[in-house]
């Protein structure tokens, strides 16, 4: 039969932070010897012996959770950690200085730098902050509450938030429109294939030809209308003021020419019938 066991215990010291561990290891071995004679049924002898060995190990370690007898200014295994609130929690913000003071409720006080207020210096009261002036403008403090932004070229406003309108004095031609840029401007043409130039003042050759053809058709139509109107006016003047009817004269000439060309054919004479008035009278 075989068997092993280990016993360990820790010894604490009231004056230091060391722990002594003592371990005993015990093992036992049991040996049985059997002798059998020539006749196993006649003689049987059992011999049993037991041997035991014991080893002792002593180990010394340091317990990290052991609280030593430190004074009020330090804690930890070596009493080297400060117990004041400034060192343990760093409560003061925005680069303020912290001073321990056990007479106060929070056991510390903060000395704020310029522009910050609050018990922990958490309030930023500076007139010029990181985002006060926009678009790379520089901020200058006038007094404790007011500021002034020096804007870069192309921007204006209290916080340099406005882009200066450079299109106020720019006129784009041919229905183009002006786009204000930072310290610059640009004319956007109605159609890049038809107009070009800084002010969209240049026309393409195809557009010039189209405009010339359109104007030509317009001139022809206007001329035709004017001619018709003049013809009607002249005809009315000849007929009503000078008693000349060119249309009637031409018709007479046409009939005379027709009669000369066809002398055998005479126009039948039409007998005009006179109207007859009838009167009926009743006689009794």
Give structural notes.
The protein has 284 residues and is an alpha+beta fold. Among the domains are: 2-62, no CATH class; 84-124, Laminin, CATH 2.10.25; 129-164, Laminin (Ribbon); 169-216, Laminin, CATH 2.10.25. Helices cover 20% and strands 32% of the residues. The protein contains 3 helices and 17 strands. It has helices at residues 85-89, 205-240, 246-261, and strands at 2-12, 18-36, 44-62, 74-75, 81-82, 97-100, 108-111, 116-117, 123-124, 138-141, 147-150, 155-156, 162-163, 177-181, 184-188, 195-196, 202-203. The chain has a 3-stranded antiparallel sheet with strand order 1-2-3, with no helix packed on it. A hairpin with a 5-residue loop joins strand 10 (138-141) and strand 11. It is rod-shaped and about 165 Å long. The N and C termini lie far apart (185 Å). Disulfide bonds join 112-121, 151-160. The chain crosses the membrane at residues 212-234. InterPro entries: EGF, EGF-like_Ca-bd_dom, Notch_Cell-Fate_Det. One of its GO terms (molecular function) is calcium ion binding. Residues 82-122, 124-161, 163-201 form the EGF-like domain.
């Amino acid at each position: 039969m075989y068997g092993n066991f280990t016993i360990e215990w820790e010894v604490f010291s009231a004056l230091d932070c060391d722990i002594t561990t003592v371990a005993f290891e015990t093992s036992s071995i049991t040996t049985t010897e059997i002798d059998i004679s020539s006749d196993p049924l006649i003689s049987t002898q059992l011999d049993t012996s037991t041997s035991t060995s014991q080893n002792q190990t002593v180990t010394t370690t340091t317990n990290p959770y052991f609280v030593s007898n430190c004074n009020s200014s330090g804690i930890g295994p070596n009493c080297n950690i400060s117990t004041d609130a400034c060192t343990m929690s760093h409560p003061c913000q925005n680069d303020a200085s912290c001073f321990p003071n056990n007479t106060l409720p929070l056991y510390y006080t903060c000395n704020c730098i310029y522009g910050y207020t609050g018990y922990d210096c958490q309030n930023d009261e500076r007139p010029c902050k990181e985002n006060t002036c926009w678009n790379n403008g520089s901020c200058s403090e006038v007094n404790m509450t007011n500021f002034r932004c020096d804007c870069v070229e192309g921007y204006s406003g209290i916080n340099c938030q406005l882009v200066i309108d450079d299109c106020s004095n720019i006129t784009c031609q041919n229905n183009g429109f002006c786009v204000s840029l930072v310290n610059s401007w640009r004319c956007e043409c109605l159609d890049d294939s038809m107009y070009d130039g800084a002010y969209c003042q240049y026309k393409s050759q195809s557009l010039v030809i189209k405009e010339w053809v359109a104007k030509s058709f317009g001139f022809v139509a206007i001329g035709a209308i004017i001619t018709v109107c003049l013809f009607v006016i002249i005809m009315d003047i000849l007929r009503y003021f000078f008693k000349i009817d060119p249309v009637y004269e031409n018709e007479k000439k046409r009939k005379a020419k027709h009669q000369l060309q066809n002398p055998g054919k005479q126009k039948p004479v039409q007998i005009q019938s006179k109207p007859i008035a009838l009167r009926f009278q009743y006689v009794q």
